[in-house]
Amino acid sequence: MSLRHVPEKVITCYDLLDAALAGGVEDFTEGKYYGNGRLSYFQAQKNQAEWLLDQIKCKKGSYILDVGCGNGRILEAAKNRGAHAIGITISKHQVGKCKKRKLRAVLMNYVNIPKGWNNRFDGIIANGSIEHFVQVKDALKNKQDKIYKEMFKVFHRILKPGGYLASTVIHFNQVPNPDEIIKGSKSFEKYSSNYHFFKILLEDFGGWYPVPKQLERCSAGLFKHLKQEDGTEDYRRTSEYWLSAMKKQICKNPKVWVALLGKLISKPKPTIRMLDNLIISQSWMWQFRKQKGKTPTRLFRDVWEKIN
Fold this sequence. Notes:
Oligomer: single chain
Low-confidence stretches: none
CATH topology: Rossmann fold
Structural class: alpha/beta
Strand order of the largest sheet: 3-2-1-4-5-7-6
């Protein structure tokens, strides 16, 4: 399948994050804690999958698409409900892991979804994938709305009448200037806002976030926006768990040593930068921590219904 329009940076970041699986991190999106700080990371991950499936009315016989399916956490939960679930991902490693679990996953970018899939699905989940659809270079050209509108058109054409879409998307709470971000980290004071945003958006993960209400505006005429939840605190709890787990596992888990060694041999510079992002600079975690009473970003869970 084609991966046209997918930046190499985004593919690389998921290949590198794959090493975290050896250290007990099963997914890279926020869990759902329901305000219970004592809830385990793994239960929160299960809660989130079930919540997303509930929002798209997933039941036995439903046809479900997971856009950015990762290693198949939500696909497996849908399969357990008796649904026909398929995932698309830009990572060959993730496709392989899904297939080992007897889950259906395809190497595909969402913009390349074929017309043969038109009106095929009862529900779509986009869990943490939309953040990669716009890149810094797109923001420089003010193409964000155009890309989001095209995304909603794709989702609209592949959903059955009355179908549902559930999304989790990081949004900017403070919007960086793409003209500044493109300059690179040497242009910023270390650990400044621009430094962290550069690490997240350009150097290590690749992407650009929408601002609040932007997706609702871009979906007009195609989807009815049903509800929104703020999951920022849930993402903070989840990402702090990653940090704690990775620190512990790097120190004592031989499986993690082997996984990291493999990444260092195959992709040394990106691996070192990613380790810096997650453990030294902690740029990923920074965006969910309050800075002067306000988090740099916010995580919204949204539910949409197709307008026929």
